[in-house]
Specification:
250 residues, alpha/beta, Rossmann fold, seven-stranded parallel β-sheet, 7 strands, 15% strand, globular, binds nicotinamide-adenine-dinucleotide
């Protein structure tokens, strides 16, 4: 299936690794010019080298208004416009509510929910002016089927799904397509041991057995399962679809 993303300018937050890196790679393969917006310069530069000349990196902290606005302005000045925004940057921390400090809660919401609000707000004016634009938010199945020990993460992703629907309703009259995808579980650093080590020890469980065992196929989703759906939503094959959330799971 041809996605026809040639010469589209895409900004992918959190694209230095994991799902975001895969999304950026797939968008480049489909012909897009991609800018990875992340905190991790070294990892992102390496990823861009592999993707080739149609990928570049910009340092952006999605939780910081000035950083987001300056980044979006710079990309727009250098590349002329932003056609596609993928709000992928996200964080998770496994902890029970009684052990959850207000800072834990605020950090998860700042990256997962406040970040997409800031980036969306910064790209909307140019998309409205052109009467065209695609925004894809990476939410999570946890936002629809909340998980124990992930209360703040589940709530932040539920909020992102609701935000997606509301913004899509607001700007449908300008022809914008604003959707989200909800992966179940993909083996990335989000789940990795070094990440888990910083987490509440009373909730550590096995990714393969406890998490993936709950899916119909009994296995995790792949990076490309998410990336392919994102490319499809960024293409005009889905120009009559907005305000929807798509599950990437079994
Ligand atoms: N891996 C999964 O199983 C899974 C399941 C459902 C949803 N998701 C979602 O997919 C997205 C990507 O997850 P992943 O598994 O690839 O995670 P990951 O930890 O491998 O990558 C996250 C990326 O986001 C970046 N990031 C974090 N905070 C940032 C900030 N303030 N500003 C800019 N960049 C920032 C990190 O540097 C990193 O490159 C997240 O939104 C996550 O919630 C993942």
């Amino acid at each position: 299936m041809e996605m026809h993303l040639d010469n589209k300018v895409a900004l992918v937050t959190g694209g230095a690794r994991g799902i975001g890196e895969s999304i950026a790679t797939h968008l480049v393969r489909e012909g897009a010019r991609v800018v990875i917006a992340d905190l991790e310069a070294e990892r992102a530069e390496k990823a861009c080298q592999v993707m080739g000349p149609n990928a570049s990196f910009i340092r952006m902290d999605v939780t910081d208004k000035e950083s987001v606005e300056a980044g979006i302005r710079r990309v727009t000045e250098e590349l002329g416009r932003i056609d596609i925004l993928v709000n992928n940057a996200g964080v998770s921390r496994r902890v029970r509510v009684l052990n959850m400090e207000p800072d834990d809660w605020n950090y998860i919401f700042k990256v997962n929910t406040f970040g997409p609000y800031l980036t969306t707000r910064a790209v909307l004016p140019q998309m409205i002016e052109r009467e065209k634009g695609k925004i894809v938010n990476i939410a999570a199945m946890a936002g629809k089927k909340p998980m124990a020990t992930y209360a703040h993460y589940s709530a932040s992703k539920a909020a992102l799904i609701a935000f997606t629907e509301a913004v899509a309703l607001e700007y449908a009259e300008h022809g914008l397509n604003i959707n989200c995808v909800c992966p179940g579980a993909v083996a990335t650093k989000l789940w990795s041991i070094d990440n888990l080590e910083t987490q509440d020890k009373s909730c550590v469980s096995s990714f393969d057995k406890d998490i993936c065992g709950s899916f119909s196929f009994g296995r995790a989703q792949r990076l490309e399962d998410v990336a392919n759906m994102v490319c499809y939503l960024c293409s005009d094959l889905t120009k009559n679809i907005t305000g929807q959330s798509f599950n990437i799971t079994s």
